[in-house]
Amino acid sequence: MEKINIMKIKNIYKGMILATTLIIGMWMSGCKKGTLDGIKPTGTPTTTNFWKTADDAQQAANGLYDLQSNDEDMYGRGFFWFIDASDDMVVGRTSADRENIKNFVCTGNEQSIYAPWSAHFEVMKRANDIIANVPGINMDQATKNFILGQAYFIHATMHLEIADLYGSATQGAPVQNRANPLAFPLQLPSVKDNYAYIIADLKKAASLLPYLNQLATTDYGRAHKTAAWAYLAKAYLHAKDYPNAEKYADSVILSGKHALLPNYADVFKIANNYSSEYIWSVASSQYGESILPGAMLENKGWGLYNGFGYFQPTKELVDEFEPGDKRLAATILKKGDTFQYFGQTYTYPIGGVSNSLTGYQFNKYMEPFSYAGGIHVSTNGNEPSTDLNVPLLRYAEVILIKAEAEIMQGKSGDAEINMIRQRAGLAPVSGATMVNLKHERRVELAGEWSDRNFDLVRWGDAQAVYAKPLHGSDGSIVWPARNFVPARDNVWPIPPNDIQISQGQLKQNAGW
Asked: From CA 321, how far away is CA 78, in angstroms rounded?
């Protein structure tokens, strides 16, 4: 196996599909295309010249990671706009599309909705092509299993995000039919059916994947067994199957493969990209991939780097931290805090000037910008990726998934919650309830891909929380109260373009 070099993967996969793209492009010329129409598999045009060798299979596996690490549309900014809808942050800069998402008045036509939607389905298509074609290739069985395990895992993670965003009890999210891959992807009857599909894929992935420590270090960043178990725990939690959420969280915990780092701030350092706390992250580098650290940096970066100035933390989030919580300084930069920036020590905000609407900035992903000479950040400020792998699901969240599952079953989650609190320098709690659990998830995972907005939705708290305005560090209102209607806003609008292209096969979510 070769190291995940995203720039190389892009070239490999581009070459792999070039001939097919030309053929399909001519076939579809003059026709209107939508995302789901475009995810039809490569089909007969490629079966004659691809899916023949072990190298073909490996190239296809590499292609699974390309769009996931796309600098913009998925784990750059695109997918994070749904998380920005929460009470933890504001947009930060004038941007009508992003403000419409935060205010729950979007249409689905916004590029910030359509782009991550499209990217998710393209990745799932690539995974399904592997699942359909790699079993027939004559190659080493262990390598074949690893490639298939990656495909099942990646499909499941993409599917879970789509299900959480677009699926409800009365209408599930669309998914490609593996038994009839040429058919238009259709919505499942209920999101419960999406979760069942996801769970089956993750179990298959876990059966095929090795542990992380069984991989060559050059393969770090690819799917592995405990990541599949961790996402099983998360999928079961979202499906409200708490016994199985606890079971698979325990599979990770009892594997002995993971541990909390002693110092919370160290989780977000380049040297710890693949530490004991790592479960799954965006494999990134200064040459491309996730731009989230740069997107969160002060707009124009005080003249030293082209930060984008988005996703600014609110006073509500800052006030959620208890006195003495070590996580606050690691998570938020506030007035008077000192920090390293391009080899120098500064006080926030530099020169007493900031264009942050809230007076705060996320500090979690600032380590790459601390080094003199910018040795860990992209030289292209318009694509501000860094050498820091941005976590998607880490061991601390697995512990909190177990705690939540226990509490929801009437069991004690004290041991797990206190593991998290001890590292933060806080006193233990006794008889923890969901109030404690919600607090710990918020402060432990602030500014991460754990999706605070979806947490509030699944807990039934979103309407009440969003009925309150959001404040800046000086106490002024920086974002007005919002009208969140659960019957509509618990899910997001299906892009209307794809509904039109489907000729009525796709149905819009209720109320949109």
From this structure: 28
Q: Which is nearest to 233 in space by CA: 389, 394, 83?
A: 394
CA distances to 105, 123, 127, 199, 273 from 157, in Å? 27, 10, 11, 10, 20
68: alpha, beta or left? (left if phi > 0; alpha if psi -120 to 50)? alpha
CA distance 118 to 36: 8
Q: CA 101 to CA 41: how far, in whole Å?
A: 31
> Rounded to an integer, what distance in angstroms lies between the CA atom of residue 152 and that of residue 198?
9
CA distance 416 to 421: 9
The count of other CB atoms within 10 Å of the CB of residue 163 is 27
**Which is nearest to 424 in space by CA: 195, 267, 281?**
267
Cβ 271 vs Cβ 277: under 8 Å? no
Q: In whole angstroms, what is the distance from residue 123 CA to residue 434 CA?
A: 35
> In Å, how far are 61, 72, 89, 209, 295 from 142, measured between CA atoms?
14, 34, 45, 9, 40
* The length of the chain, given as a count of residues: 512
Could you tell me which of 101, 53, 103 has the C-alpha nearest to residue 78? 101
**What residues have CB less than 8 Å from 145, skipping those under 6 apart?**
208, 209
Q: Are 355 and 91 in contact (CB under 8 A)?
A: no
492 contacts 106 by C-beta, under 8 angstroms: yes
Per-residue pLDDT tens for 47-105? 578 999 999 999 999 999 987 766 578 898 888 999 999 999 999 999 999 999 999 99
Report the candidate in 99, 93, 126, 94 with the shortest Cα–Cα distance to residue 112: 99
* Closest alpha carbon to 386 in 399, 361, 368: 368
pTM of the predicted protein model: 0.92
What dihedral do alpha carbons 349, 354, 358, 364 form, nearest 10°?
-50
Q: Determine contact, residues 204/152, Cβ cutoff 8 Å.
A: yes
b/e per residue, 111-121, with b = 16+ CB within 10 A? ebbbbbbbbbb
Q: Rounded mean pLDDT of the chain? A: 91
What Å distances lie between residue 66 and 44, 445, 500, CA to CA? 23, 26, 28
